[in-house]
Amino acid sequence: MLKRIIITGSIALLAFAAGPRESSATPDLPQYRSDVHVGVTSCAGSTCHGAATPFEKSVVLQNEYVTWSQKDSHAKAYTVLMNDASKRIAANLGLANAHEADICLDCHADNVPANMRGQVFQISDGVGCEACHGGSIRWLGQHVGVRDHAKNVAAGMYPLEDPVKRAELCLSCHFGDDNKFVTHRIMGAGHPRMSFELDTFTAIQPAHYVIDDDYRKRKQVANGMQTWAIGQAIALERRVDALLDPKRGMDGIFPELVLFDCQACHHSLTEPRWQARPSTGLGPGVVRFDDSNLLMLRVLVTALDAEKGATLARQTTALHKASTESVEAFHTAAKALKETTGDLVAMFSGHSFGSGDIAKLLAGLLGEAKSAEYSDYAGAEQALMGISAVVSAAAEMGMKDVAETAQDPLAKAFAALAKYDAWDYAAFRSAVESIPVPN
Ligand code: HEC
Ligand code: HEC
Ligand code: HEC
Ligand code: HEC
């Protein structure tokens, strides 16, 4: 897993909350809209976004292309489809090759239909600017020098500053949607495991923009805790949707295995490591639903509404129990959870996350760590990314001491999770438990 570096020296900034927003049921994502994607080359001019170094007097950095092409793995997402790992995956799946298969291109490139590809569009650019920012045919001309973001959005620019919209977009590839999905069969063919946390992944992409006064004038800025929360709510929604989708939820007599904890099945048999995880209520030898998003949501919801948090915890345990009974019981429990969590995006969007939430969220996460709830890798990984999001938000709000005292434990925790197959739970737990919670 990638390590997140938290900058502790940043100036104190006020916490901004995004206004209440509805999550859209059918995401209006760049890949599915009708705007022509002109091509990365059209963004990369040296006086546009292809400058070698940031422009001092400009509102945007203007070297975004250089950051993307040199440091952002999205720029090589297409070329990886030609490497040995992809060749093996393609061969195992019976595909002629990976770089021409829609099943791979849909996530590893800006795979819009032929009639939506402009003259300089190249599929080999991978996940290019317009795969995230939207097909630019209607805004390319007008956005140059124009600071009217709303006008650009009206002309088809995707509003990535909105954490809800951002989560929907990133997760469409980092988890999948009903058009594209990495099934256990694709994993079995050799695809790497996927994990995602919106605030952390936004930071490590790496960011090709700076949030300064000028940015705040033009765009909404969500607090990192809010970004984390909204990302978790939408990730859970996607996971439950996949579970309940007749096309994706089952594979023959088995449920779709990517929805379950990988290490419930994939681990060494010579080193027994089973231990109870209290809130699952499950005994040994049972395949666990991957509840890592639920573990995070429980902490988040409890901090905002204790009663609802308790309901969520109860329904999570009920879901685990139902998974040992029947598909029907499992689906019924999943629907109950969907009902309870349906308003979380609105709840998190409407909450003004601020310094008062730091202690509550850290205490919640550390408390669950102490109750051995993060003994599955997926849960530990989400907890660590969540803690990083909270600590990073503290740093941004000027709570330097919180960020500084957490640096060393966070580094140790990231090191403990570095090797997926040989992660060190004891080291992870003691590192996390040594993070001080501010009063
Ligand atoms: C639903 C979206 C999705 C689909 C479909 C998909 N991938 Fe991926 N793939 C990803 C994401 C996201 C990652 C990065 C995972 C991470 O590091 O968190 C990735 C990573 C990879 C990697 C590792 C890249 C590296 O830098 O080492 C390979 C290889 C790969 N995919 C090949 C394929 C092939 C071949 C197919 C088609 C059979 C395919 N993928 C289909 C989303 C997808
Ligand atoms: C994986 C998704 C992704 C890709 C690919 C991507 N961006 Fe971005 N970009 C973002 C996000 C997220 C933001 C921050 C939210 C915002 O300001 O809209 C952003 C912000 C920006 C900004 C706004 C800076 C500001 O101050 O308002 C510019 C300009 C930009 N990107 C240009 C580019 C260019 C040019 C490319 C291609 C070379 C590119 N981006 C590729 C996700 C992406
Ligand atoms: C069109 C599909 C697509 C979209 C949209 C997308 N990604 Fe990705 N992302 C990928 C693929 C594919 C990879 C793996 C690339 C590789 O390693 O070659 C990846 C890799 C990454 C990585 C590197 C992960 C690692 O383990 O190395 C980060 C971080 C990331 N994406 C963040 C984001 C964020 C944040 C967003 C939303 C703003 C986003 N992505 C949107 C497809 C996508
Ligand atoms: C219910 C048990 C179960 C779960 C949960 C599960 N798998 Fe599997 N996995 C299997 C089985 C069974 C195979 C096939 C083994 C074989 O062919 O020998 C397999 C095969 C694989 C392989 C191919 C291994 C090889 O030797 O080539 C990969 C990679 C893989 N799974 C990844 C994952 C990932 C990633 C997850 C979680 C997202 C996951 N699995 C969840 C049971 C599971």
From TrEMBL:
Sorted UniProt keywords: Signal
Pfam families: Cytochrome_C554
Xref: InterPro entries: Cyt_c-552/4, Multihaem_cyt_sf, Multiheme_Cytochr_ET
Gene3D superfamilies: Flavocytochrome C3, Chain A
Domain Cytochrome c-552/4 positions: 47-134
UniProt keyword annotation of Signal present: yes
Domain of life: Bacteria
Entry-linked PANTHER family: C-TYPE POLYHEME CYTOCHROME OMCC, DISSIMILATORY SULFITE REDUCTASE SIRA
Protein name: Cytochrome c family protein
